[in-house]
Amino acid sequence: MVRTKMNYLNGFPDLTVNRARPMNASIDGVCRKPLKVIPDERGWLMEIMRCDDDIFDTFGQVYLTTAYPNVVKAWHYHKKQTDNFTCIHGMMKVVLYDAREGSKTRGNLMELFIGEKNPVLVAVPPGVYHGFKAIGTETAYFLSVPNLPYNYQEPDEFRIPPDSPDIPYDWGLAPGLKHG
Question: Could you tell me the pTM of the whole model?
Protein backbone atom coordinates (compact mmCIF):
# COMPACT_ATOMS: atom_id res chain seq x y z
CA MET A 1 0.00 0.00 0.00
CA VAL A 2 1.14 3.50 -0.77
CA ARG A 3 1.62 5.91 2.11
CA THR A 4 0.59 9.51 1.61
CA LYS A 5 0.83 12.57 3.81
CA MET A 6 -2.20 13.17 6.10
CA ASN A 7 -4.45 15.85 4.65
CA TYR A 8 -6.09 18.41 6.92
CA LEU A 9 -9.36 20.28 6.49
CA ASN A 10 -10.01 23.28 8.75
CA GLY A 11 -7.26 22.11 11.11
CA PHE A 12 -8.65 18.57 11.50
CA PRO A 13 -7.62 15.33 9.75
CA ASP A 14 -9.55 15.00 6.48
CA LEU A 15 -11.47 11.77 7.04
CA THR A 16 -12.29 11.41 3.35
CA VAL A 17 -8.71 10.36 2.56
CA ASN A 18 -6.98 7.07 3.38
CA ARG A 19 -3.53 5.74 2.63
CA ALA A 20 -5.02 2.76 0.83
CA ARG A 21 -8.04 4.23 -0.99
CA PRO A 22 -10.65 6.96 -0.58
CA MET A 23 -12.25 6.97 2.86
CA ASN A 24 -16.05 6.82 2.99
CA ALA A 25 -17.98 9.06 5.32
CA SER A 26 -20.10 6.39 6.99
CA ILE A 27 -20.82 2.74 7.64
CA ASP A 28 -24.42 1.59 8.01
CA GLY A 29 -25.28 1.07 11.68
CA VAL A 30 -22.24 2.89 13.10
CA CYS A 31 -23.35 5.72 15.40
CA ARG A 32 -21.37 8.52 16.99
CA LYS A 33 -22.40 10.55 20.02
CA PRO A 34 -20.36 13.67 20.83
CA LEU A 35 -19.64 13.72 24.55
CA LYS A 36 -20.05 16.93 26.53
CA VAL A 37 -17.55 17.88 29.21
CA ILE A 38 -19.16 19.85 32.05
CA PRO A 39 -16.45 21.70 34.02
CA ASP A 40 -16.68 23.66 37.25
CA GLU A 41 -14.30 24.76 40.01
CA ARG A 42 -14.25 21.23 41.49
CA GLY A 43 -13.23 19.45 38.27
CA TRP A 44 -15.35 18.14 35.43
CA LEU A 45 -17.96 15.52 34.57
CA MET A 46 -18.62 13.74 31.28
CA GLU A 47 -21.64 11.47 30.77
CA ILE A 48 -20.66 8.65 28.41
CA MET A 49 -23.82 6.55 28.06
CA ARG A 50 -27.31 6.68 29.49
CA CYS A 51 -30.13 4.16 29.19
CA ASP A 52 -32.27 6.87 27.56
CA ASP A 53 -29.69 7.64 24.82
CA ASP A 54 -30.66 6.78 21.25
CA ILE A 55 -27.34 4.92 20.99
CA PHE A 56 -28.15 2.64 23.98
CA ASP A 57 -29.41 -0.90 23.31
CA THR A 58 -28.79 -3.17 26.30
CA PHE A 59 -26.10 -3.50 28.94
CA GLY A 60 -23.59 -6.34 28.83
CA GLN A 61 -20.54 -5.21 30.80
CA VAL A 62 -18.03 -2.39 31.18
CA TYR A 63 -14.30 -2.86 30.70
CA LEU A 64 -11.18 -0.76 30.33
CA THR A 65 -8.23 -1.57 28.10
CA THR A 66 -5.14 0.42 27.24
CA ALA A 67 -2.80 0.82 24.30
CA TYR A 68 0.78 2.03 24.56
CA PRO A 69 1.90 4.79 22.14
CA ASN A 70 1.91 3.66 18.48
CA VAL A 71 0.58 0.18 19.33
CA VAL A 72 -2.22 -1.15 17.11
CA LYS A 73 -4.97 -3.43 18.45
CA ALA A 74 -6.73 -4.70 15.31
CA TRP A 75 -8.66 -6.27 13.55
CA HIS A 76 -11.67 -7.97 15.08
CA TYR A 77 -15.44 -8.13 14.75
CA HIS A 78 -18.38 -9.69 16.57
CA LYS A 79 -21.26 -11.74 15.14
CA LYS A 80 -23.75 -10.82 17.92
CA GLN A 81 -22.31 -7.98 19.98
CA THR A 82 -22.52 -4.23 19.48
CA ASP A 83 -19.49 -2.40 20.88
CA ASN A 84 -19.89 1.06 22.43
CA PHE A 85 -16.59 2.72 23.25
CA THR A 86 -14.68 5.91 23.83
CA CYS A 87 -11.14 6.94 24.72
CA ILE A 88 -11.10 8.54 28.18
CA HIS A 89 -7.37 9.37 28.39
CA GLY A 90 -4.98 10.17 25.57
CA MET A 91 -5.94 9.92 21.90
CA MET A 92 -6.74 7.02 19.61
CA LYS A 93 -7.15 6.53 15.93
CA VAL A 94 -10.12 4.17 15.49
CA VAL A 95 -10.65 2.49 12.13
CA LEU A 96 -13.77 0.59 11.06
CA TYR A 97 -14.25 -1.60 7.98
CA ASP A 98 -17.57 -2.94 6.72
CA ALA A 99 -17.12 -6.51 5.43
CA ARG A 100 -20.77 -7.51 5.90
CA GLU A 101 -22.39 -9.41 3.04
CA GLY A 102 -25.41 -7.50 1.76
CA SER A 103 -24.53 -4.26 3.54
CA LYS A 104 -25.11 -1.13 1.46
CA THR A 105 -21.81 0.21 2.83
CA ARG A 106 -19.78 -3.00 2.29
CA GLY A 107 -16.14 -2.08 1.66
CA ASN A 108 -16.39 1.32 3.39
CA LEU A 109 -13.68 2.43 5.78
CA MET A 110 -14.07 4.98 8.57
CA GLU A 111 -11.15 6.59 10.37
CA LEU A 112 -11.97 8.48 13.58
CA PHE A 113 -9.77 10.32 16.05
CA ILE A 114 -11.25 10.12 19.54
CA GLY A 115 -10.07 10.94 23.03
CA GLU A 116 -9.42 13.88 25.29
CA LYS A 117 -9.29 16.36 22.40
CA ASN A 118 -12.37 14.86 20.71
CA PRO A 119 -14.62 13.03 23.21
CA VAL A 120 -16.98 10.80 21.23
CA LEU A 121 -18.84 7.57 21.97
CA VAL A 122 -18.80 5.18 18.99
CA ALA A 123 -21.28 2.30 18.52
CA VAL A 124 -20.07 -0.49 16.20
CA PRO A 125 -22.66 -3.03 15.05
CA PRO A 126 -22.01 -6.76 14.61
CA GLY A 127 -20.01 -7.69 11.52
CA VAL A 128 -17.97 -4.48 11.29
CA TYR A 129 -14.21 -4.95 11.75
CA HIS A 130 -12.62 -2.44 14.08
CA GLY A 131 -9.33 -1.60 15.69
CA PHE A 132 -7.43 1.26 17.23
CA LYS A 133 -3.99 2.78 17.60
CA ALA A 134 -2.80 4.98 20.45
CA ILE A 135 -1.51 8.22 18.98
CA GLY A 136 0.68 10.68 20.81
CA THR A 137 3.24 10.05 23.52
CA GLU A 138 1.13 8.57 26.32
CA THR A 139 -0.85 5.44 27.00
CA ALA A 140 -4.45 5.71 25.76
CA TYR A 141 -7.31 4.39 27.92
CA PHE A 142 -10.21 2.83 26.05
CA LEU A 143 -13.55 2.39 27.87
CA SER A 144 -15.95 -0.14 26.35
CA VAL A 145 -19.61 -0.81 27.17
CA PRO A 146 -20.68 -3.70 24.89
CA ASN A 147 -24.31 -4.79 24.84
CA LEU A 148 -23.38 -8.40 25.72
CA PRO A 149 -21.10 -9.81 28.43
CA TYR A 150 -17.95 -11.60 27.33
CA ASN A 151 -18.60 -15.33 26.95
CA TYR A 152 -15.47 -17.15 28.14
CA GLN A 153 -16.65 -20.54 26.81
CA GLU A 154 -17.65 -19.27 23.33
CA PRO A 155 -16.13 -15.82 22.68
CA ASP A 156 -17.96 -13.71 20.09
CA GLU A 157 -14.70 -12.30 18.78
CA PHE A 158 -13.15 -13.03 15.41
CA ARG A 159 -9.65 -11.71 14.70
CA ILE A 160 -7.31 -11.14 11.78
CA PRO A 161 -3.86 -9.46 11.89
CA PRO A 162 -3.62 -5.66 11.58
CA ASP A 163 -1.69 -5.99 8.30
CA SER A 164 -4.18 -8.44 6.75
CA PRO A 165 -4.58 -8.02 2.98
CA ASP A 166 -8.34 -8.56 3.51
CA ILE A 167 -8.74 -4.95 4.69
CA PRO A 168 -7.36 -2.14 2.51
CA TYR A 169 -5.83 -0.10 5.32
CA ASP A 170 -2.24 0.67 6.32
CA TRP A 171 -1.84 1.26 10.06
CA GLY A 172 1.80 2.26 9.65
CA LEU A 173 2.88 -0.47 12.09
CA ALA A 174 5.90 0.53 14.18
CA PRO A 175 8.60 -2.15 14.01
CA GLY A 176 9.60 -3.81 17.27
CA LEU A 177 6.19 -3.33 18.95
CA LYS A 178 3.64 -6.05 19.62
CA HIS A 179 0.53 -5.42 17.52
CA GLY A 180 -2.69 -7.35 17.00
Answer: 0.83
